[in-house]
Specification:
heterodimer, A: 178 residues, 3-methyladenine DNA Glycosylase II, Chain A, domain 3, Alpha-Beta Plaits, two-stranded antiparallel sheet, B: alpha/beta, Rossmann fold, Fumarate Reductase Iron-sulfur Protein, Chain B, domain 2, 36% helix
């Protein structure tokens, strides 16, 4: 009987030490999933989802507190990437394809107050005090922060202009059942 | 020859040729238009940058816009005259969106600029031929408009051994290559020999569909005494697809996602070979091309030599106008060409035809449900499953469509043509390819803006830290000064 008690105790001790060591040695800092989700999100920290920046949104997604359709600037692309990552089924055809938008300055209203370019998360607005500001379309994520900051309503989001490079055939109309 | 005919082309369809409308019309030069609208981008790659200003007088063949970057092509003045505008003009594209275009007012003299003509073009180094082809603004005239010099250089470097000249012209209605082969066979053969020399290929084959016996005879006569082989291939659509012609001629298949150079083959169109001859032997850059004007609504269909930049309306006017209001205007062939949104749009380097089609010719029956007859599968020259791909695309599952080979689709339209349910299959594929490249662009933009956002937050942190440090320094200096003052007071 003593042998049984002894061997089981030893076994317990050894395995306990092993587990204790492993829990320290292989400890994961934070939730790896959060980082992976953050890599999928646009990263412009616009806050349109209602969370403080993309890190907050990623945390909420990992905890299951937010729908995967939360990111307006990300569009269908981000939804499908999140759906693959989190294993949540979503019918992509139901996700409204948001039109690409960009902010535009109405030059006759701009007073050159510099408030907009101070809030732009991607440095997409160029300007100087008392000079009309301008938006770099290529860098604009249409987060809308500048629209809120503008005291004269000179900034507004408009659909991005279609060029020969961005134009493509529309989807054929659905006229059949099959 | 029997050996060569062993290789059976895959898929394909046999649409009504309708080539009889214009096949017997010799090439005529279009009278010089008053105004030419020359787009700065008529080729695959980067747009050319203008090197002339508004108000400048230019001579025919003078460089007006230089190519930029590795894949680009320069643009030359199609006639002599004055540059009257440099701005946006409707593009020869189904969208008709404005593109940077140079407007030239003809002075009616059509005076050529001086060009250095080599005594013996075959004495030129291969590099020099490719350079001259590039400088002449030559692009693939079969319709793809890929800069030819880039192709020559890639082929020479990758050790291509077979040169295939594409005289297929499988698109219905089009007869511009047919006429060019009948009338300018010597020039084409000279151009083929120049390409042959520039790339250092072992053999040269000219593939011509067997529905063009006159062209085959003319090319055979011109190629006598050279090592160029003229081969008749069965007439079917899309025989003019370079990879289909390669398979029919030498029995080799280009791997999916690969290029012809991967199997040691270089393919050029007959009209491109002719342009190479004009440029290298005669010093004439690409400023005009042969265009077929045809279709049921055109009074007298014609083959015309047209200066680049001529509005389509001038071509229709020269051909006697319309007999009936056209139901659809098409630039290129009816299978792969695109709808012409308006007649003021100019002819560019890649325009092989301008068609005015009647209602009876286009037909637009309502699409019906797919009956899974798989006719489209048999018609696909690439060996894809069009019906399956279209189903995935309809359900917005583009990744599944890519898995089925969407990226290998050449948009030849054979599947749509044969579909008994009139499903616009190729439209689905064009849409899906556009959607995919839009996603690709969005992804690139997202990466770029993410970097911008990271840079900005790093900068903001740095500024805050520097401000704090400066404040701390100021505080320390102030305290030190006060301490010194106190010490001075104590000693006093």
């Amino acid at each position: 009987m003593l042998i049984a008690v002894f061997s089981l105790t030893t076994l317990g001790l050894v395995l306990g030490l092993l587990l204790g060591y492993a829990s320290r040695r292989l400890a994961v800092e934070g939730n790896a999933l959060v980082e992976e989700i953050q890599a999928i999100l646009p990263g412009s920290q616009c806050g349109q989802c209602g969370f403080p920046g993309c890190a907050g949104a990623a945390q909420a997604l990992a905890d299951g507190n937010a729908p995967i359709t939360l990111c307006p600037p990300g569009g269908r692309e981000v939804v499908s990437a999140l759906s693959a990552k989190l294993g949540i089924e979503v019918n992509l055809a139901d996700v409204a394809e948001t039109m690409p938008m960009t902010a535009e300055v109405r030059e006759e209203l701009c007073i050159g107050c510099t408030r907009c370019y101070k809030v732009c998360p991607t440095d997409a607005i160029m300007g100087a005090a008392k000079h009309i500001h301008a938006v770099f379309r290529e860098a604009c994520t249409a987060c809308g922060k500048c629209v809120e900051a503008c005291p004269t309503e000179a900034l507004a989001l408009h659909p991005a202009p279609i060029t020969l490079q961005s134009w493509y055939w529309h989807k054929p109309e659905e006229r059949m059942a099959a | 020859m029997n050996l060569l005919n062993r290789f059976q082309p895959r898929g394909g369809v046999h649409p009504a040729g309708r080539k009889d409308l214009s096949a017997d019309r010799p090439i005529r030069a279009l009278p010089l238009p008053e105004r030419l609208f020359v787009p700065l981008q008529q080729h695959v790659g980067a747009a050319a940058t203008p090197v002339v200003a508004v108000g400048d007088q230019v001579l025919k063949g003078q460089l007006i816009a230089a190519g930029q970057g590795t894949i680009s092509a320069p643009v030359h003045a199609p006639t002599s005259g004055r540059v009257v505008a440099l701005g946006d003009y409707a593009a020869p594209h189904p969208s008709g969106l404005p593109v940077p275009t140079l407007t030239l007012e003809s002075d009616g003299e059509d005076r050529w600029s001086d060009a250095a003509i080599p005594a013996d073009p075959f004495a030129l180094a291969p590099d020099e031929i490719a350079r001259r082809v590039g400088a002449a603004g030559i692009v693939g005239l079969g319709g793809a408009a890929f800069p030819s010099a880039v192709k020559l250089n890639i082929s020479r470097k990758s050790g291509v051994d077979t040169l295939i000249i594409n005289g297929g012209e499988c698109e219905p209605y089009l007869t511009c290559d047919d006429r060019l082969m009948r009338e300018q066979a010597e020039g084409i053969v000279a151009g083929i020999r120049l390409i042959h020399h520039a790339v250092g290929t072992q053999r040269a084959l000219v593939g011509i569909e067997d529905n063009k016996p006159e062209a085959i005879a003319a090319m055979r006569a011109a190629a006598l005494g050279t090592d160029i082989q003229v081969v008749a291939v069965p007439a079917m659509y899309p025989m003019g697809w370079d990879k289909q012609l390669t398979r029919a001629l030498i029995g080799k298949e280009v791997p999916a996602g690969g290029r012809s150079a991967d199997i040691g083959v270089l393919v050029h169109n007959v009209a491109t070979a002719y342009a190479v001859h004009q440029a290298v032997a005669l010093g004439r850059p690409l400023v005009s091309r042969i265009v077929t004007v045809s279709g049921g609504a055109v009074k007298t269909p014609c083959n015309l030599e047209v200066p680049i930049g001529t509005p389509a309306q001038d071509l229709f006017d020269y051909c006697g106008g319309f007999t009936a209001p056209p139901a659809r205007l098409v630039m290129g062939g009816p299978m792969m060409g695109h709808e012409l949104p308006a007649t003021h749009i100019p002819v560019v380097k890649g325009t092989s035809g301008v068609l005015a089609l009647t209602h009876a010719e286009i037909g637009r029956p309502e699409p019906a449900p797919c009956i899974r007859c798989s006719t489209c599968v048999r018609a696909c020259p690439v060996g894809l499953l069009p019906l399956e791909m279209a189903t995935r695309i309809r359900a917005a599952d583009l990744d599944a469509a890519i898995g089925l080979g969407l990226k290998d689709c050449i948009a030849c339209g054979s599947c749509s043509y044969v579909c008994p349910a009139h499903i616009p299959l190729v439209h689905y594929f064009n849409y899906a390819k556009g959607e995919l490249s839009a996603r690709e662009r969005a992804k690139l933009k997202q990466e770029a803006t993410k970097k911008l956002a990271d840079d900005r937050s790093a900068r903001m942190e740095r500024i805050a830290r520097e401000r704090e440090e400066a404040a701390a320094r100021r505080r320390a200096a102030k305290e030190a000064a006060e301490a010194a003052k106190k010490a001075a007071e104590v000693t006093a």
